Every structure is written in structure tokens, then in C-alpha cells.
Amino acid sequence: MDWLNAVVQGTLLGGLYALFAAGLSLIFGVMRLVNIGHGDLIVLAAYLGLTVTTATGMHPLFALIVVVPTMAVIGYVLQRGLLNQTLGDDLLPPLLVTFGLSVILQNGLLEIYSADPQKLEAGALETASFAVGGLNLGVLPVLTFAVAVAVIWGLQWTFYHTALGRAFRAVSDNQDIAQLMGLNRRHIFGVAMALALGVTAIAGILLGIRTSFDPSIGGGRLIFGFEAVIIGGLGNLWGTLAGGVILGVAQTVGAKIDPGWQVLSGHIAFLIILAIRPNGLFPRISA
Amino acid sequence: MGSILKLDRLSKAFGAVTVADALSYDVQQGEALGVIGPNGAGKTSMFNLITGTLSPNSGKVEFAGQNVTKWNAARRSHAGVARSFQVPQPFSGMTVFENAMIAATQSAGLHGHEAERFCLEVLEQTELLPKANVLAGSLTLLERKRLELTRALCAKPKLLLLDEIAGGLTEGECASLVQTIKDIHASGVTIIWIEHVVHALLEVVDRLIVIDFGKKIAEGEPHAIMNSPEVKEIYLGIEADA
């Protein structure tokens, strides 16, 4: 039963990792941009949540109403003002610029919020749990997983059933032709980043409720996000969810064997999958 | 009936390679203009200059009375310029219908059911309706060429640029495509057509220009042009009078 418990808890944890990864997956899929600053943007969202909850006394989940649109606007401005300028045939400029962004965000957060660990106070939600077939499930992890499934379903639906999604896929398929069809790729990229950071905002708030955070933890979240994306296969959102779950399960099972192995066993699982399936488990079929 | 497109001393060079050399001509509303010239003469580059994919070193492009030289490709597309590519470039991960919808919603600015109905009409006209839900990447060459045409038409163009759309097709395929293009022209769309398959071209166009080394070297009534010594020289591969 302990092992089953570890697997179930790991699966639920995987929901959080999938949320870290969904934004990365989305922007890589649409504009082939690898965002090194993604982890720090998650932490930024958590701090924005902290500011909103301390200023208004709101529950952190209600703070989403403010933080999601704020992050979306930041995303649009960031893309149009900065990142669009770095995109081209060369992959290096966006890597360098987002790396710089990561450094700036970390130091900016350090300056404003100090290095003290913070936490979003969510009252009873933090400890509430219910029993299912002999297992005790935390309400927060279950909620996180449900949100992850809903977000990925929503993104998938947007991609395949809306005009915006069609525009995303057209630009991702062939930017030059899309321009000739009247699509303004700079705007489309801006919208994609806005959507990605909207998802990041959700991830950041849920992270902040689950654990304490400080300005330096972005790098670690970025790695988990990357691993989930790559395990699942680039450009496949449901694959990203599966990748998050595999990573989460590997971590909790590793921790069960020895508490010191939690993070390491996640990385080992990632390396094994990368060695066996270099394109991930469910790569998007490309023509 | 006025001029819909006017190129005024348009020049473009990549280093020592000149793809457009003081290129000037007018295209009248409703006209079908044919363009011929040897490989590498700058015909496709001329299309890139008209659609805004390339910007000229000097000269001017006027479309529907407006100077569009500084406009980007998306803006010219909204204004009514559409093209097909010599090597078809569909959005291969999307269905034929979705490819058409991109042009109809983005370029022509249609919405919802109106856009869907319009796309279905065009697909019917270009004979791709049975393939509407097939991924564009899995189409045959003729179907891809027809998809190029479909996408261009779904943009509701005022000016349609066709780049060697008949190349690589069988006789029968070519004949049915020519018929489709004739119908499109008859509906009032202005066409500029680059083509090596001259007999197909001559069935449709009212006027012919010949381009070599980015320069317009002849212009006029199609059959007269084809019989001129200059053109014969180029097509026989003889060095033009040095």
C-alpha cells in the first residue's frame, strides 16, 4: 500500500510539473523558442500572488483573477518588446536573451522581496485531505492535478478547434507562408506568450500554496518543466502531462526508497527515457 | 478599368546577382499577364517583391493606386495580393480545409460560418472538396498545386500571382487546371502567371512579358512575342547579342 501511495502521490505531483511544462511546451511548439527564464517567471507569478494576497487579504486561488491576466499582459509585452527581436534562423540569441532575463528576474525579486522563503497562505486547503480506498489524498494535490488536466485539455482544444489555434499551427508550420496569408506572426507570437504565461501564473500560485519559495528556485522548476516536456515528446501537450506524471512518480518512488533520492531519481528516470527514446515518448508526428 | 499593379524601376540585387534590374510595367484591372524567361531570370524574385517577402533596393510598387513598397507581406495580403508557389508549400500538419480557412479568416477577414461556406465553395471550384479533411502533407503533386490555388483564392485576391503552377503535371491534369484558371480569370480576378509550360500559358493570358537577368526584354501580344527572334534566342539557349 505504501508503494501504491507513492505512485498516486507522484502522479498528483506530476500535475504540478505538467503545469510548469505546459507553457514551455506551448511556446516551443508555436515559435521554437526555448525560454530559459520560464522557471523564474513561475516564481515571479508566485510573488505576484504573494503581493496580491497580502495587500487584499484574498485567498491565493482568488488572486488568480488578478495574477493570470497580469502575467498574460507581461507575456505579450515581453514577446513583442523583446523576444520577437531575437527570433530567426539562429537558436542562440533567444537562449542568451532569456538566460539574461532569468538573471534579471532573480535579482529583481531578491531586491524587492529579499531572500527569505515565502509561502502563500491558503488556510484549510493546505492540509485538507480525504480517504479513498485506504489512501489519503490531499485536496490540494488532487485539485492541482485536475487543474493541470483542465489546462492541457483547454490548450489542446484551443489548438485544434479555434481560429487562434489554427493561426498558431500555421505560424508554427511555416512562418513565411503564414505571413503571406495575412497572419501577423509578431502578434500571434505575443498572444502565444500571453497564453503561456497565463498558464505559468496558475503554476506559480499552486506552487506557492504547496511549498515555500524564494527568488532562487526558478532554475529547479525550469529543469522539471524541461524534463516533463522532453519525456512527453516536443510539441505534444498530452505527452507533456504524461511526462510530468512520470517525473513525479519517479521522484516519489525514489523518495520512498531513500528520502535523499527524490530529485536524483527523477533525473535518472529522465536520462533513461532520453537514452531509450531520444524524441520522447509521444513525439508529435511531423510530415 | 485602371492599373491595379504598377512596378516602377524596381531593382534588387543579392551581392553581384541582380534579380530585378529597373523593372517597370503596369498590369490593368482584370488583365491576365504571362511572364516567361529562362531559369534564374528573376521571375520568382519579382513575385517576392510584389508580395512583400523581399524589399527592393530601389524603385516602387504600387497596388490599387497605393504605394505599397514599404508594406509587409501580411498587409499586402490583406489588401488583396495572393500567390501560389512553384514548389507547393502547404501547412502540411493541417488539413486541406484548415489550410483554406487560414487564408479565408486571416487574409480575406471572413468569420465563422461565412468563412467555412466560402472555403467549401472554393474547394469545390478547385476540385479538392473530396480531400477537405485530409492532411495537406499527404496530397499528390496535382492536389498540392490545387491547394496552392485554393489558398490563394480563399484570400479573395484582387491580384493572383501564379508561379509555375502547371509545371510537373501530366497533359490531362494541366488541361483541367487551365480550365480552372480560365474560370477564375473570367470571374474578374487579375492574374500574373509565370510559366514554362507555354501552351498552357497562351490559352489564358492577354499579354506576355519576357524577363532575363532581372530585366524586361520584351513585352506584347503573346504569339508575336513567342515568335520574336530575341525570345527564340533565349529559349534555344543561344547567347543574346553581346
TrEMBL record, chain A:
Q: What parts of the sequence cross the membrane?
A: 12-34, 46-79, 91-110, 130-155, 188-209, 221-247, 259-276
Q: How is this protein situated with respect to the membrane? A: Multi-pass membrane protein
One GO term under biological process is: amino acid transport
Q: Spell out the protein name for this chain.
A: High-affinity branched-chain amino acid transport system permease protein LivH
Record's GO cellular component terms: plasma membrane
Q: Where in the cell is it found?
A: Cell membrane
Pfam annotation, one family: BPD_transp_2
Q: Which organism is it from?
A: Pelagimonas varians
TrEMBL record, chain B:
Q: Which Gene3D superfamilies match?
A: P-loop containing nucleotide triphosphate hydrolases
The answer to keyword Phosphoprotein applying to this record is no
Q: What is its EC number?
A: 3.6.3.-
| GO molecular-function terms, A-Z | ATP binding; ATP hydrolysis activity; L-isoleucine transmembrane transporter activity; L-phenylalanine transmembrane transporter activity; L-valine transmembrane transporter activity
Matching InterPro entries, A to Z?
AAA+_ATPase, ABC_AA/LPS_Transport, ABC_transporter-like_ATP-bd, BCA_ABC_TP_C, P-loop_NTPase
| Metal-binding recorded as keyword | no
| Alphabetized UniProt keyword annotations | ATP-binding, Hydrolase, Nucleotide-binding, Transport
**Which branch of life, at top level?**
Bacteria
Q: What Gene Ontology biological process does one annotation of this record name?
A: L-isoleucine import across plasma membrane
Stretches assigned to the ABC transporter domain: 5-238
Under CDD domains, the record lists: ABC_Mj1267_LivG_branched
One Pfam family per UniProt: BCA_ABC_TP_C
Q: Which GO terms describe its cellular component?
A: plasma membrane
What is the name of this protein? Lipopolysaccharide export system ATP-binding protein LptB
Instruction: State the organism of origin.
Output: Pelagimonas varians
